[in-house]
Write a structure and sequence with these properties.
Length: 660
């Protein structure tokens, strides 16, 4: 067994690998860029080596620097995590030349499976079902348009290298094909150093289901069941679960057998994942093989009890798999949600920043994988993930319920976050029913998340919480001032609670355990020990356990629960009536400017000064946190002045273009 390994990565995956290595008695070496000098993975490691500037292309992606760090520290092997150099065959060869081991497959398997065109050919040869498509690299946008027309729309343009949703675009007509080709090629080149693109038929209403495989160097190969990864945005997975609510035993066995057959065909060793697209009739087609540890591997670990990172390390050290296919059993259900620094209300734009508050939940069955801490910076240079939150339960309903409760109890302040959005998905009827496709987010939420309807039990919870926190706050004020308690709120007192602009009339009064609220003629009881100053309310409402995040804001409180993220302002009935007559503050007019919606880097300016444009035309491209974002015109107009240049760093709301 190794005594020391180096982790060629950062963030939550580096921390996760370090935890298992330490449990195995293995010393760990971290590498870090200038932006990560104080990162959590650096703090957790036994040693750390600086490898260059913040930009990944000058640090985490420089093979020579990683190899030199391994040799200098005496690391016997390198675990690449995911992303960066994890699927780079040249990196594996460089480590071999330096007599340093690689905790992953050999360079031949990586090269074969890392090229989507070559992997498809190998899959067909191994008897694996594949998607119809063009069997060659696409040269340019013109050829892409011709090939797409032959295959038939819709089509998928995707990078031959890499993964993680980078360099992928769906095209439903010729215009989208030409534009999508340029965007996918540019994104793939910047992410993987390889801008080659291929085209396949896009399967409408697809589910994304993958099979986890484990193989050693002695011909033993097993699978650990499947993961359902259909909840995606921009081809980036958002929520994953194991097992899939869709597969039956026969389909599961067939997919597992094909995944193992493909792994054996390339003499695979280590952990890997074979991804499939599955249609509504349970027909499945090979998508790609990821020759690395997957982001979503924790859900498989939770239901099988197998530490996949440990297995990777043992296989790389020359050990034989001690597990057989018959040893693999599934216990219960697990669901994972990826928590990102982003603004769902602004089209899910990246929102890096310093974590002023970071408090993971303490929920039964929950697991948090993270690479940050309170006070850490979520950098604009890397992936916007803050943490992965998983929940395990005896069945799917319990796992979903636990994950929803954990999301309610997760406290983040500073950068934007998608906690409310994830909570809304957890409680969506389609998700609960398991009626999933990769278009779920687009179908149910569109391009941006505008919140959830405030009705039923959710509305009861928010109104009762607003009443309780305001009454308890008033009680404290009365005690401090020496005035008689109840001079503002008394039993049966009518008052209004404004939730994001809509006022609700209620009556409320405190009791020994909490508050009783009359809402539309119905009495709702909320019991809680919450006290002013606490940022989380835990209680029982109508027999249901609830957790609500509570923070002072805008003359009231910001309440977050069940997918809702609202400002609640409680006033006496007459005060609420008067407040409703106050004029709303007019928003500033920015119609003459194109403002950057996020911090990032200007990749290109598509227009020129004096050029006319139509609504929907592309104006510029801004890169933020490894994703390229096309900024489009909201109306017809003409460019008066170009303020920012390609290569410039821009902040939120910084002017890029001025219009006539």
């Amino acid at each position: 067994m190794f005594s020391k390994i180096l982790i060629a990565n950062r963030g939550e995956i580096a921390c996760r690998i370090i935890r298992t290595a330490h449990d195995m008695g293995i010393s760990c070496v971290a590498v870090y860029s200038e932006a990560d000098a104080d990162a959590l993975h650096v703090r957790m490691a036994d040693e750390a080596v600086a490898i260059g500037p913040a930009a990944a292309a000058e640090s985490y992606l420089v093979i020579d620097k990683i190899v030199a760090a391994a040799r200098r520290t005496g690391a016997e092997a390198v675990h690449p995590g995911y992303g960066f150099l994890a699927e780079n065959a040249a990196f594996v060869r460089a480590l071999a030349d330096a007599e340093v081991g690689f905790i992953g497959p050999d360079d031949r398997a990586i090269a074969a499976m890392g090229d989507k065109l070559e992997s498809k050919r190998l899959a067909e040869k191994a008897g694996v079902n594949t998607i119809p498509g063009h069997d060659a690299i696409i040269a340019d946008g013109d050829e892409a348009a011709v090939v797409a027309a032959v295959i038939g729309y819709p089509v998928m343009l995707k990078a031959t290298a890499g993964g993680g949703g980078k360099g992928m675009r769906i095209a439903r007509d010729e215009t989208e094909t030409r534009e999508g080709f340029a965007q996918a090629a540019s994104e793939a080149q910047s992410s993987f150093g390889d801008g080659r693109i291929l085209i396949e038929k896009f399967v409408d209403q697809p589910r994304h289901i993958e099979i986890q495989v484990l193989a050693d160097s002695y011909g033993n190969c097993i699978h650990l069941g499947e993961r359902e990864c259909s909840i995606q945005r921009r081809h980036q997975k958002v929520i994953e679960e194991s097992p899939s609510p869709f597969l039956d035993a026969e389909t599961r066995a067939a997919m597992g057998a094909q995944a193992v057959a493909l792994a054996k065909a390339v003499d695979y060793r280590s952990a890997g994942t074979v991804e499939f697209i599955v249609d509504g009739n349970k027909n499945f087609y090979f998508l790609e093989m990821n020759t690395r540890l997957q982001v979503e591997h924790p859900v498989t670990e939770l239901v099988t009890g197998i530490d996949i990172v440990e297995q990777m390390i043992r296989v790389a050290a020359g050990e034989t798999l001690t597990l057989t296919q018959g040893d693999v059993t599934v216990d219960g259900w697990a669901v994972e949600a990826r928590i990102y620094a982003e603004e769902p209300s602004r089209g899910f734009l990246p929102a890096p920043g310093r974590l002023i508050r970071y408090r993971p939940p303490e929920t039964a069955g929950a697991r948090v994988d993270t690479g940050v801490f309170e006070g850490a910076e979520v950098s604009l240079y890397y992936d916007p993930m803050i943490a992965k939150l998983c929940a395990h339960g005896a069945n799917r309903d319990q796992a979903i319920e636990r994950l929803g409760a954990a999301l309610d109890g997760f406290e983040i302040a500073g950068p934007g976050d998608n906690l409310a959005f994830l909570g809304a998905v957890m409680r969506h009827p389609r998700f609960i029913a398991g009626d999933l496709t990769t278009a779920f987010i687009d179908d149910e939420f569109g391009a941006a998340f505008d919140g959830v309807p405030l009705t039923g039990k959710l509305l009861e919870t928010l109104l009762a919480t607003a009443a309780l926190v305001q009454l308890r706050e008033d009680e404290r004020c009365y005690e401090i001032s020496g005035r008689a308690a109840g001079s503002r709120w008394s039993p049966g007192c009518g008052w209004g609670v404004n939730l994001d602009g809509e006022t609700h009339s209620i009556e409320a009064a405190l009791n020994d355990t909490g508050v009783e609220v009359a809402i539309a003629g119905q009495t709702v009881s909320l019991s809680s020990a919450w006290k002013p100053g606490e940022t989380q309310l835990q209680g029982i409402i109508q027999g249901r356990a609830v957790t609500v995040r509570v923070n002072r804001q805008d003359g009231g409180y910001r309440l977050c629960h069940g997918g809702a993220d609202v400002i609640a302002v409680a006033r006496p009935e007459r005060a609420a009536e008067l407040a409703a007559t106050m004029p709303a503050k007019a928003a500033p007019d920015h119609s003459r400017y194109l403002l950057s919606p996020m911090p990032g880097r200007v990749v290109s300016i598509v227009v020129e000064a004096g050029q006319a444009f139509k609504a929907g035309d592309a104006l510029c491209v801004v890169d933020a946190m490894k994703m390229e974002n096309v900024l489009r015109a909201e109306r017809d107009g003409q460019v008066a002045k170009i303020v920012a240049d390609a290569g410039d760093s821009v902040s939120v709301d910084q002017v890029i273009l001025e219009f006539e």
